[in-house]
């Protein structure tokens, strides 16, 4: 039985400061480091054949902390540009509260939660999903079909797009899908990659 574990990175310094992060490369906060260790503890007993993260520091560091456990120290680790967070364009580096005061909360909610609407100069969730799913189908799905267990550490919007694809969620449903920092979602598949079980840890 194939296993896919999706993990959002731990809290970053930008999450802590309530900043639109996107492609800004920021470190984990002290709380984020602790969250990554908690993820490793929650995943104790899982066996992985390979692990992936985006190329951004907050995801790489979260994965490094997880695979530092002796049980996973020898698994192949890969970093992929396609798993990077959604590009937030002109909003990157801006405080979310200040942006809401300037443009209105309804507009900010649409930029953040909509499937098709992109923030100014940035990517829509649909565009983010397209690159993440292309990578998933090319690199991860073949391993799952072979019965392997795969760990992926990425970002809130990358994972929203992947979960929408895997779970066949509608654009309305994905608007309400919230993935917390250090959130864990476990999928178990049959040989045809039909989902047998979804578990949130």
CATH class: Alpha Beta
Name given to the CATH architecture: 3-Layer(aba) Sandwich
Q: What's the helix-strand series?
A: EHHEHEHHHEHHEE
The number of domains is 1
Biggest sheet architecture: 6 strands, mixed
Indicate the structural class.
Answer: alpha/beta
Low-confidence stretches: none
- Supply the number of helical segments: 8
Estimate what percentage of residues fall within beta strands: 15-25%
Helix residue percentage: 40-55%
Number of strands: 6
Shape designation: globular
The spatial strand order of the largest sheet comes to 3-2-4-1-5-6
The Rg value, from CA coordinates, equals 16 Å
Q: Termini separation (Å)?
A: 19 Å
In terms of quaternary structure, what is this? single chain
How confident is the prediction overall: mean pLDDT?
96
Q: What is the fold-level CATH name, i.e. the topology?
A: Rossmann fold
**CATH homologous superfamily designation:** Phosphoglycerate mutase-like
